[in-house]
From TrEMBL, chain A:
Domain spans labelled ABC transmembrane type-1: 77-282
Family: Belongs to the binding-protein-dependent transport system permease family.
Listed PANTHER family: GLUCOSE IMPORT SYSTEM PERMEASE PROTEIN GLCT (PTHR43759:SF1), TREHALOSE TRANSPORT SYSTEM PERMEASE PROTEIN SUGA (PTHR43759)
Protein name: Sugar ABC transporter permease
TM stretches of this protein: 20-42, 72-102, 114-134, 167-186, 259-283
Keyword annotations from UniProtKB, A to Z: Membrane, Transmembrane, Transmembrane helix, Transport
Highest taxon above the source species: Bacteria
UniProtKB/TrEMBL annotation, chain B:
Species, as recorded: Micromonospora antibiotica
PROSITE patterns tied to this protein: ABC_TRANSPORTER_1, ABC_TRANSPORTER_2
Organism ancestry: Bacteria, Bacillati, Actinomycetota, Actinomycetes, Micromonosporales
Location of the ABC transporter domain: 4-235
Protein name per Swiss-Prot or TrEMBL: Sn-glycerol-3-phosphate ABC transporter ATP-binding protein UgpC
Alphabetized GO MF terms: ATP binding
Keyword Cell membrane attributed: yes
Keyword Translocase part of the UniProt annotation: yes
SMART domains per UniProt: AAA
């Protein structure tokens, strides 16, 4: 027994050092994330409208009942879900194609990669404005292509344009993440598959995709969380008109425009919870390895 | 099963580098051929061209009499084993081995039967449900072999399949590979950089350097009758000793004394453009402690005295390192071999490696009288590396006439 004592002493010191090294980062995290989260949870439990500051009082979960029984919330939630599912799905397919092109290109690799990444480098709001102008009847080149119609004044076409702008913007990001996954597939594995008799498609589906699965899940997780918080494009393109608001738009309208801190915070907390659930589903159910942890060996 | 013929096969890359140049090679049905050479000699590129993983720039490749230059790997009916094993990490051992059969659309019962059979041969039966990540290096190697043999392909192509194993396992697996190949009788092309593997495994060995074939032949023939300096230095461990030799008065002046030469060599050296400087090559085992030599043998060789630096007793014999005076032998081939060995080439003069009988009483530090066999020495032209002692493919030492 006496032999174990120095060992555990050693371990203790190591653990202490670990905590010390983490402390600064943890402190910053607490200040910039934990505090706002806790504060908004606190606000969400109060009736707190800056237009009527005298009526501020603690009302428990009443704000949650109000929001969750409101049809505007559910419409916005549906719109957000639709945008999330459609854009992430399309981005996955296009991103994979783009990643394959970037991975395989031998000549002008740098130029191809730079060109592909340009949309991601443009500020979302700037890009959104250029989409808006392009679809403006009379002056926009895209609107003119369609006989000067005004697609941003109708719900379905507005949503389609919002999704198009989102996809155009973030496919390069998806491609970048997937390209990192492609680099994980050993060249020998693909050679082995071709001598084993696999066609190009079989090599892709039976060898590349399974090996890339951890990278694909990480890419999907990142993009899903991102897409669920969609704001800029909608703000610029439709400003939420024709029932195209996302949940983030709705929270913004209540919080900043409506000055209703209680309801706005409630929506923010609900968005936070939804995002947490999405992350939980990905990590626990699909076995996505959290970035930074060991490879996706556990199944 | 089939023969493989390479007819003036070359490979050049878009940037102009030539990886393989005019390789002519006929591999008979069922033959085990080894491609060996230092890194960058084109052996792997040649194998990849046979597999169809690299395009052939010019020349023709025939498998089973059929031109396959433009055929995809999947249509060539060959199986390949990789140095990295290239097992599919998401599949179990059984699924890995069944993969080529499933792609060939065989029915499930046949697949199971073939996989079980191959697993039995390679003693993998108990591991069939494991994932590659849970296997040792040796087990992974066997799975890779298993995946190759289940299909009964026309040929096996092996790219340094044993190089990732530790030394002991490598020796063990060498016999497994050899036995398996004999049992199946499948044409096999095996790439390695390890000359021991090349010597022990193959029916024939192809030595490559700079994209070109240096010599092709059974291991013993390459060892006894190397066509050039490169082959002589590459084959054998410890490698052949190389000494500088100057041609003077019909003799060779070397650090070991004046070596007499026979009529045939003399005639070769009489030409106006004949080299005046040669490289003398002697293998370590062609030295012997002069005390242990009988009179008959003494007449076939000559003796010298040199200080013994280091004595390594191997049990069955002794490696003794001598220091000899004299110029270093120098040639492009020797420098290349040295670079490949990653160290100064021990045969470059100065140091002499000898393999003496275990009975030799040689002590470190003492001057020792050593005999060497004149019938076994080689003479090389340093300008082109050609073995001058070779006559009609045979080498008979310097005295041959």
């Amino acid at each position: 027994m006496s032999r174990r004592a120095p060992l555990s002493e050693n371990k203790k010191a190591e653990r202490k050092l670990g905590w010390l090294l983490c402390a600064p980062a943890a402190l910053v995290m607490v200040l910039v994330t934990a505090y706002p989260i806790i504060y908004s949870v606190w606000l969400s439990l109060q009736r707190f409208d800056l237009r009527f500051p005298d009526q501020r009082e603690f009302i428990g979960l009443e704000n949650y009942v109000t929001v969750l029984s409101n049809e505007f919330w559910w419409t916005a939630f549906g719109v957000t879900m639709l945008i999330t599912v459609v854009t992430v799905a399309v981005e996955l397919v296009l991103g994979m194609g783009l990643a394959l092109v970037m991975h395989r290109t031998l000549v002008g690799r740098g130029i191809v990669r730079t060109a592909a990444l340009i949309p991601y480098g443009i500020v979302t709001v700037v890009a959104a404005f250029s989409w808006r102008y392009a679809w403006t009847p009379g002056t926009g080149y895209l609107a003119n292509l369609f006989d000067g119609s005004a697609p941003l004044t109708e719900r379905a076409s507005s949503l389609a344009i919002i999704m198009l702008a989102e996809i155009w913007k973030t496919t390069p990001f998806m491609a970048l993440l997937l390209m990192a996954g492609l680099a994980l597939v050993p060249e020998d594995l693909l050679k082995a598959a071709s001598t084993d008799g696999a066609t190009a498609w079989q090599r892709f589906t039976k060898v590349m995709l399974p090996v890339m699965k951890p990278a694909i899940l990480v890419a999907l997780l990142f993009r899903t969380l991102d897409a669920f918080r969609v704001f800029d494009n909608i703000f610029v393109l439709t400003n939420g008109g024709n029932e195209t608001s996302s949940v983030s738009m709705l929270a913004y309208n209540n919080l900043i425009r409506g000055l209703n801190l209680g309801i706005g915070s409630t929506m923010s907390v609900l968005i936070f919870i939804t995002v947490a659930i999405i992350a939980f589903v990905f990590v626990k159910l699909f076995g996505t390895a959290a970035p930074g942890s060991d490879d996706g060996e556990r199944r | 099963m089939a023969d493989i013929v390479l007819d003036k096969v070359s490979k050049s890359f878009p940037d102009g580098t030539v990886a393989v140049q005019d390789v002519d090679l006929e591999i008979a049905d069922g033959e085990f051929v080894i491609l060996v050479g230092p890194s960058g000699c084109g052996k792997s590129t040649t194998l990849n061209m046979i597999a169809g993983l690299e395009d052939i720039s010019s020349g023709e490749l025939r498998i089973g009499g059929q031109r396959v230059n433009d055929k995809a790997p999947r249509d060539r009916d060959i199986a390949m084993v990789f140095q990295s094993y290239a097992l599919y990490p998401n599949m179990t051992v059984r699924e890995n081995m069944a993969f080529p059969l499933r792609l060939a659309k065989l029915d499930k019962a046949t697949i199971d039967q073939k996989v079980d059979e191959a697993a039995k041969v390679l003693e993998l039966t108990s591991l069939l449900d494991r994932k590659p990540a849970n296997l040792s290096g040796g087990q992974r190697q066997r799975v890779a072999m298993g995946r190759a043999i289940v299909r009964q392909p026309k040929a096996f192509l092996m790219d340094e399949p044993l190089s990732n194993l530790d030394a002991k396992l490598r020796v063990q697996m060498r016999t497994v590979v050899s036995r398996l190949q004999k049992k199946l009788g499948t044409t096999t092309v095996y790439v390695t950089h390890d000359q021991t593997e090349a010597m022990t495994l193959g029916d024939r060995v192809v030595i490559m350097r700079g994209g070109a074939i240096q010599q092709v032949g059974p291991p013993q023939e390459l060892y006894d009758h190397p066509r050039n300096l490169f082959v002589a230095g590459f084959i054998g461990s410890p490698s052949m000793n190389f000494l500088h030799a100057a041609v003077e008065d019909g003799k060779l002046r070397t650090a070991l004394g004046d070596v007499p030469i026979g009529d045939r060599i003399r005639r070769e050296l009489e030409g106006a453009d004949a080299p005046r400087e040669l490289i003398l090559g002697i293998r370590p085992e062609h030295f012997e402690d002069a005390e242990l030599i009988d009179d008959e043998a003494r007449a076939r060789g000559m003796e010298f005295t040199a200080p013994a630096d280091i004595v390594e007793s191997m049990g069955s014999d002794k490696y003794v390192y001598f220091t000899v005076e004299g110029q270093r032998a120098s040639a492009a081939e020797l420098e290349e071999l040295a670079a490949d060995a990653g160290a100064d080439f021990s045969g470059g003069g100065g140091n002499l490696v000898t393999r003496l009988s275990a009975e030799s009483p040689v002590q470190e530090g003492e001057d020792r009288r050593v005999w060497f066999n004149l019938e076994k020495i080689h003479l090389f032209d340093p300008s082109n590396g050609r073995n001058l002692t070779l006559h009609e493919g045979r080498s008979a030492g310097t005295l041959g006439d």
